[in-house]
C-alpha cells in the first residue's frame, strides 16, 4: 500500500507538475519522496564514500577528458552541501552551476537532471539534508589542462545543453510519460547508452544506441532486434531491472551498480513504465545492417570453438543457451553482437560479478580468463562467440584485446 501511495505521489509531482515546496529535512513525507527520487537517480552509485554507506564521495570517475573526483553531497558544512540552500541545489540540477556561479562538468548529468521539477529537486534536497553529515574533503580540480578551466563549459553548454523541465507528450499514455521522465530525467540512461560527440555531448541522432564508457560498453536500448531490445518482452525488461538478470543477460560492471542501488529498489509501476517507454520510443529503430557471420571453417572460428569448449561450455552450454537466470545465454545475445567488442573483451579478460538484489540474493560471477589466455586466444574465442549459433559481428583482433588488457591491467601468465 505504501509503495503504491509513493508511486502515485511521484507521478503527480513529476508528470502532472506539483507546486514547489520549501525543502524541509524534518518533513517525513518530503524526505521519503526525495529518497525515492534519489534512488531513481542512482545517486549512491556515483557518490558512495569510502565507508561504503554514505554519499561522501571522493573516488575518481573516469571520463574521456581525464578523471573527476566525485563530490561529497552529505550535509557536512565544510566539505559537503551543509551550507547550500534549496535554490543552490536546484540551480546545480537545472543549470549545472555551483552556488557561486561556476560551471559543473557534465559528468554530473545536469543535461538530464534539468528535466526534474523544482518540487522534486526540493524533495531530493530535503532527503540529502536529512542524511548524517560526513566530513570528507574532496579535491574538485583533478582534470588536466585545459579541461580544468571551468569557463570552457559555457561554450560546451551553448552547443550541447538546453535547460528545461520534462513536459509529457499529450499523445502518449501517463505510463509512457512516467517512463520517459525517468529514463530521460533522473535515471539519466542516455549518459551511458547514447554515443558522444567529440566534445562529449550526446549524439541526439543516435539516442540510446549504445556507447563505450569507462572501459565498458553500455548496450543498445532501441528496439533493434539484433543489437537492442527488440526481442525482449516487457516481462524480461522488468525482471532485468528488478533482479539484474533474466535468461538473456546478467548485469555486471556499472550496470550492476545501477541495479543494486537504483532499479531493484524502484516500484513495479515505475519499472513497467520504463519498459513501456523503451519499447514504444524505440520501435522504429533500425541499426542492424546486414552483418554476415564468419564462416564456421574460418581458422579463427575453429580455434575459438576449441577454446570455448575447454573454457566456457561448462557454464554457457555447448549451444550457447546458458543456464536460466544464472549464466546468460550467448546465442542471440545482443551485447556480444555489438559492433564494439569492448563489453565482451572486458568480461573475458577481467571476469564479472552480477548484481545481488533482494529478490535475487545470489550474485553469480564469471572468473577472469585473461591470466590463462593470450591476446590471440581471447580474440579468437570472442570472435567465435560473436559469430556462432546465429550471432553475427565483426571479428575481434589481438590488437583490440591488447588495448583492453592495458586498461584492465590483467596480464597473462
Automatic annotation (TrEMBL):
Q: What is this protein called?
A: Cytochrome c
Q: Where does heme c 2 bind?
A: 189, 192-193
List positions binding heme c 1. Answer: 43, 46-47
Q: Which Gene3D superfamilies match?
A: Cytochrome c-like domain
Q: Where is the Cytochrome c domain?
A: 29-132, 174-282, 299-389
Q: Which UniProt keywords apply?
A: Cell membrane, Electron transport, Heme, Iron, Membrane, Metal-binding, Repeat, Respiratory chain, Signal, Transport
UniProt remark on cofactor binding: Binds 3 heme c groups covalently per subunit.
Q: Where does heme c 3 bind?
A: 312, 315-316
